[in-house]
Amino acid sequence: GPEVSSSLQTKYYTLTESGQAGIEAATATLHALFVQATEHVLANQESLAPYFHIPAALWPRIQDSWARQYVIKNDTISGRLDFALTDHGIKVYEYNADSASCLMECGYTQDAWSNAAGLGSIGRSNSSTLFTQLTAAWKSKNVQGTLHLLCDNDPEERYHSLYMKATAEAAGIPCVLVVGVQDLHFDSSDGTTILDGQNRPLRNVWKTWAWQTVISQYEARNAGAAATSGAVQVMDVMLHPSVRVFEPLWTVLPSSKAILPILTQLAPDNPYLLRSTFDPADIPLFTGGYVAKPVMGRTGANVSIYNGSGDLISATAGKWVDDTIVYQEIALLPKYEDDCYVQVNTWAIDGEYGGTVLRIDESNIVGLNSGIYPMRVVPDKCLSMAISASSVLPKYLNAVKKDLAVHTLNIARHVGNARYLDASLPFVPTFEAKYGHEVSTAQQSKYYTITEAGQAGVEAATDILHQLFLRATDHVLAHKRELAPYFCIPAGLWPKIQHSWTHHKQDTISGRLDFALTDQGMKVYEYNADSASCLMECGYTQDAWSNAAGLGSIGRSNSSTLFTQLTAAWKSKNVQGTLHLLCDDDDEERYHSLYMKAAAEAAGIPSVLIVGVQDLHFDSSDGTTILDGQNRPLRNVWKTWAWQTVISQYEARNAGAAATSGAVQVMDVMLHPSVRVFEPLWTVLPSSKAILPILTQLAPDNPYLLRSTFDPADIPLFTGGYVAKPVMGRTGANVSIYNGSGDLISATAGKWVD
């Protein structure tokens, strides 16, 4: 219906900012963990496949779906994680990696209802970027031709499909909605191509049909059940070798309950997981109780809940009575003041948090008919609504000092003298010119290891802090009058920063967080949101060195996907025309630029490296367009030049220092209204030390933050000591460290004395 409410009273829920941060971190971390578990299943198919109840003949197709990663593995748009918020943190029930249920409610109706009901001033939306994220996801997929969106003749499936259609069309993809399959038919000219009712071939398909439907039809057909003569079934579309399907076939694995015991084996200490098993002999380990659910079950069917004494306390009916059972440690949904149980459902869009929707029911098993209510995110001190602080404060994943260990490695001479980098890669010769090509010139070297738990903590901290620095940036721009003076940025640049945030918020590719691993957990020093330093070493040389030195069998890489992620990021930006990569005449800046250039070119973007600015010039025909040495206009720029360089040049020019007549300066490029810059101007804010005290104000209890202040009167609060660093400082310059007695124990020189 169209009404806000048919009754005089209704309800809504609020979640604290700390709780929201925990949910976002859990979403990104668990998506990655479910993907890792999928890879594990496919690597151990012989022993694990029987648990999944998937026909043997479909496994080669699943393997192909996964292995062809540049075509299919990354063909995911969205997936939904189902959680319980418990007194011990957030616990995941399962990952619906192949479901669109609740998508539109999350991304549109809950905010529209909140605004209409007068809740717009209470906290903030949890999902205001979901539509934009979906559009960005579609842009990154390089869909060629028409996208057909297939759904059953059901109102809910239809409106979710229309919502997804709108996001794909916003990405510039022509779309067609197909309800049911009755209008689909095989092309009479070849007997294999599937056509829609307008005789358009199906090449790209997004669907609400579950892969389980395909499995059921596949089993029926192989059991001798024939389709109506010439009729197209769902399986014919979704298994067609010429049809690209979103979500791809491999998502049937993370969507299966059979993945849950495998997750327990892979990450037994992960705080988001509930221990799960196939073996009923393990049930006594679940002292608080357990849940029995069928491997193939959906929509809460055939679920049984038992208490710690083994008594059945809740159960649902369904068609999976004879299915294999997974036993999962109990974590009952919390019940709130309205006497309803609440399940938290979050969306992962391209693997990143997109939004949250709440499923509400009087039963502790959420099913098809469970209700949906809106949720707002409020400051930690605001606890006036339904969800209390005690039930949402997250247990943050973290890493501590002991997770990291150093090891000595003896290196044989023939190994040490060997070339370990691939000199055919465009970025390698410059690196070798600076650092040499040998594995090691010494007979001993060292390397470090981090535990899986520590790695999970590093990943969670990275995701949470990136979002927190973005929130702090938004806060600064919303309170420019009082906060801008702390940043030492010329007043004339603030409108440009605001414009950059409003129109180019998504034009970020990479940023580097600097941490200390302490006995109390990870602590962030700062966010270099505008720096490429160490990028190639992270994404290429450390793994190449490890393999050459014989460490390939020790643990795993922490960054093997970095290049692929950079390429995916570039694909999502919809860069039109040539990308110019600008760097100073410095070997390190050059090889980082060449590494990033390779990632952009892998995304299909024509790219040009520009070293220095001496060959850049203004177009004589208009006096404003900036051209490179080959007279190509600069429209898209990635750079190693820091925004601080721009600020310095801007201040100098406004102080009367003129550039060499007609010469192009870095500031002319990076502030040009017709040039799109990666990383955009607004990143000067999260990169500034001035953001640190603001983070302390916004998230005083965040365990990753070190308390910071502008006021020296607050120093006595830092009883263990403190660090003094300049707002505009870079590369560790002008940093002073004092102990708890106020004695200077370490200091660096630099140009930011004042």
UniProtKB/TrEMBL annotation:
Entries under InterPro entries matching the protein: GSPS_pre-ATP-grasp-like_dom, PreATP-grasp_dom_sf
Any coiled-coil regions, as ranges: none
Chain ranges of the Glutathionylspermidine synthase pre-ATP-grasp-like domain: 10-376, 437-747
Gene Ontology terms, MF aspect: ATP binding; ligase activity; metal ion binding
Pfam families found in the cross-reference section: GSP_synth
Entry keyword Transferase: no
Keyword tags: ATP-binding, Ligase, Magnesium, Metal-binding, Nucleotide-binding
Source domain of life: Eukaryota
Annotated protein name in UniProt: Glutathionylspermidine synthase pre-ATP-grasp-like domain-containing protein
